[in-house]
Design goal:
The termini are far apart. The protein is built from six helices and seven strands; from the N terminus they run E-H-H-E-E-E-H-E-H-E-H-H-E. It has a single domain (2-157), classed as Gcn5-related N-acetyltransferase (GNAT) (Aminopeptidase). It has helices at 10-20, 40-48, 91-102, 116-124, 132-142, 147-151; strands at 2-4, 52-58, 61-71, 74-82, 107-112, 128-129, 153-157. The model has no long low-confidence stretch (mean pLDDT 96). By secondary structure, the chain is an alpha+beta fold.
Amino acid sequence: MIEKSVQEDFDTIYEIINDAASAYRGVIPDDRWHEPYMSKEELQKQIEDGVQFWKYTEDNSIIGVMGIQPKEDVTLIRHAYVRTIARKKGVGGKLLEYLRQMASTPILIGTWAEASWAIKFYQKHGFRLLPADQKNSLLKKYWTIPSRQVETSVVLANDYWKS
């Protein structure tokens, strides 16, 4: 079942993000990796900045989360994570499709350039990689991330994005 997260889900969202983000260890640049991958303070800041998390629950347990964030003339998909033990079972795809239906503007997704599995996942679901020059300007416009992260990331867009 997919439903909007509530404040009581905060610790579980934090746990899922940091469990699932372990896949990035050794893949993303060492200077971008830290423990925990996302602190509670950063998670709270993301929520305060308008990221609304949705949760996928199975047998009364949250096994996946994904955020959506309206930004000016686009919708960002943010922080898509599925518990390690629940990967490859369609949870991420169901969450993504659900959030896609909510968006009334073009959807952009940023992820690490070296996270090939994430890029393939989004491409499988109809998103396309944008050229480097476009991704750099989009990351600077819609995301608040360090320049080093801009260098090491990609942006994908749905069909409603007009280059």
